[in-house]
Amino acid sequence: MWRWMMLPVVLGLVMVGEPLRASAAPRPNFVIFVADDAAWNDIGCYGNRGVRTPNLDRLAREGMRFDQAFLTTSSCSPSRCSILTGRYPHSTGAEQLHWPLPANQVTFVELLRRRGYWTASAGKWHLGPAAVKKFDLVLRGVKNNPWVRALRERPREKPFFLWAAFVDPHRPYQPGTLDPPHRPEDVTVPPFLPDVPEVRRDLAMYYDEIGRMDRHIGQVLEELRRQGVLEQTFVLFISDNGRPFPRCKTTLYHSGIKTPWIVRYPKLVRPGSVCRSLVSAVDIAPTVLELAGVEQPASFQGRSFVPLLKNPQGKIRRFVFAEQNWHDYTAHRRAVYDGRYKYIWNAYPELPMTPPADAVASPTYQTMLRLHAAGKLRPEQATCFRKPSPREELYDTQADPFELHNLAGDPKYQPVLRRLRQRLRQWKEATGDRVPPVRTPDEFDRTTGRRLPQFKPGPRRPRPGQAVLPLE
Length: 472
Known about the structure:
- It is a single chain.
- Helix 6 (146-153) runs parallel beside helix 7.
- This protein is α/β, with parallel strands linked by helices.
- The chain folds into 2 domains: 28-318, 3-Layer(aba) Sandwich (Alkaline Phosphatase, subunit A); 323-430, Arylsulfatase, C-terminal domain.
- The strands form 3 sheets. Strands 5-4-6-1-7-8-2-9 form an 8-stranded mixed sheet, sandwiched between helices. A 4-stranded antiparallel sheet has the order 11-12-13-14, covered by helices on one side. A two-stranded parallel ribbon has the order 3-10.
- It contains 13 helices and 14 strands.
- Mean pLDDT is 92; it is low at 1-23 and 464-472.
- The longest helix has 30 residues, at 197-226.
């Protein structure tokens, strides 16, 4: 009789004990490497044999390489704020370059912190003053390897998150960055840039900074191994936008928004695997929280890509969306991509597609200016000088991977154009996206890249509401 009376108690203890054992399981650590202006195809494991990236190549061999990964914008600080909040730039209140992340925006960082994680940011900051309070430790600057220092200063009894942000390969470039340096003959010149000595030398110095970043990544990975936590750490490598060259950074072409995306996480990821499914930068925040066992807030606009880590042939989304806002120069473009076709809409077609100011002042752009004046640039190399620029663009990236042939006016592709135009319209409506009533003017001269003395920043508009978009 006594045994039967005690049975419900015993069963209750067993049932209570299950979640306790589950919660006691070790939670993963997280390290997210963020390159500053690195193109997806300027990494060795993505097929570029001229650039030296042994540590990233090893990371891909030990993990999963994503071949259809995209950012929400091709601009430094808006891209980083978007990643941390899991929201599109215009939904963060920080969509323009240098605009700080508002204090009331929720990031996955403080959610991890509330659940017992130690959180740190090391290297480039660029998030504004309010975001500092979301981290336990913020180490600004890149001298003396702050990324390894952060790992050495962490409390060993807690799981941790490290936002490892680089300034490489951001301009300006200088000799002596890497020994031995890359040679001009090592580089691959994309067809939208002229293949001339000045451009090759510029690209070679850009490769040098990628090589230096790769060396620092290797040092961080070695520190994780030394501490015995690498196998329990989710490691992700991405870039914040494309290379700082004409028709790359700040554009919505693949050269601007497609990102390297490598994940190492032995618990779920098969070494040497490749995923060709679409993922977006807004998907990082919900992924981190799912792996950490933390509930996703309603403000997130992405979806977890954990299913792709388990099955790289799976699918979590049919479309990715991206935007271009003010970055040194006035701009407002939007894009949607379905894995093959990309549609771009331009609110200001009267303006040329000028690259960012540091790229305007670069040897590449200044050489292109001279060649353009002499009539020596091919049409696809002169797009940044075209005025007006197209209102609508449509590209078949399968047949035209560099997006050189605009199909928006081709009758054959009108069904595709209408389909993607409607999808973009739905996304804009769902996320509260609007063309700003007042434009932020150019801060720099479009020919020299020099700062304009009369520049006055435009007003910040109210942040859109918390509406979460339909994800498909």
